[in-house]
Amino acid sequence: MSPEMAHDLSELLGQITGYLYPNEIEIQWSILIVVYPYITGLVAGAFILASLVKVFNVKDVQPTYRLALLTALAFLLVAPMPLLLHLGHPERFYEILLAPNVTSAMAMFGFVYAWYLMGVLLLEVWFEYRRDLIVMGERERGLLGWIHRALSLFSHDTSEASLAFDRKAIRAITIVGIPSAFLLHGYVGFIFGSVKANPWWGSVLMPIVFLMSAIVSGIALVIFLYMMLAAIRKEPVDMRCLDTITSYLFYAVIVDFSLEALDFIHRLYQSEESVKILGKLITHKLFMSLFVLQILIGMFIPLGILIVAKWRKLNDDGRKLLYFTAVILIQLGIFSTRWNVVVGGQLFSKSFRGLMAYKMEVMGIEGFLSAIVLLALPFVILAVLVRVLPTKRLVDEAPKPA
For residue range 203-230, what is the model confidence (pLDDT) as tens digits? Predict the structure, then answer.
């Protein structure tokens, strides 16, 4: 054995406490599988926020409707990339569609993703922007004008009948899109919850917890983007809209915390043979990421901030500062939640007699830098979408139908 191999082996064994089987020493699901459910959760949460306008007729959140749609689209385009990189041969991704395995929950993701992207999100975005694309296509010249005309499919029909059809189509697509968003992210929790051999994952509440935390993270992200975009454009923030969205966020965080607490209490009440190793896992390996980052910084402190912002008579600037701080902390807490589920479930032995640590590499396909690039890429795509598609409806008169 070379000195390098001996050093790597000793370093690996130094991360182990207790007894682990030889095939359990290596962590199979890395930081990329943490990023994957985090991004899909942002997609589902942003779309649910957008649906408040078209389905539930919450007019106060109208200023964020288009931004929420574009946010969901930008993050959905990146959602499968962590899985493709983790597979090792991303160029073979099309085979999952040519030879589907309907008994595999992981394999069915390709069809769920394709349906949500092309059957729901792209259609809703197109119907929402069709009239504005026609207007901008006739006003503008050059490359941007050609792009707008192409996106409108070179249509010129802006009659009241066509606009009425657009509105009906958007509502129908959104109604279908709500359960589709639940399916997109709920199945991620289903995959983990169906692993009966792993007591950290095997819970019937896992899909529901994933869904609720997705709604929390998506709403918080749209609030963050709305405030950042207003600051960049030097535009005033609609405080009525912001107050309404943060109210929804506040109650969503409470429900999310209640579900996670219920799941934890249920595990303690069962008191299965795994309860001791899970206790050691929480207090030793996941203490910082679970108690400090997820619960304290990512949940309790944002709840306290939102309570102060809601019930103290603060001016607009004071509330905006508190809201902005809260949504950043919430994002940190939700990412920690994904980390604790994905990585935490792999840190104990199947014999329930040992623990190990996960040492994340910096470089490489499944390293820290790859995760940062995947998390930053949706924001780059969103910047392009916002440049091409306006986040505010055009108020000028549309051109007369040809």
Answer: 777 888 888 999 999 999 999 999 999 9
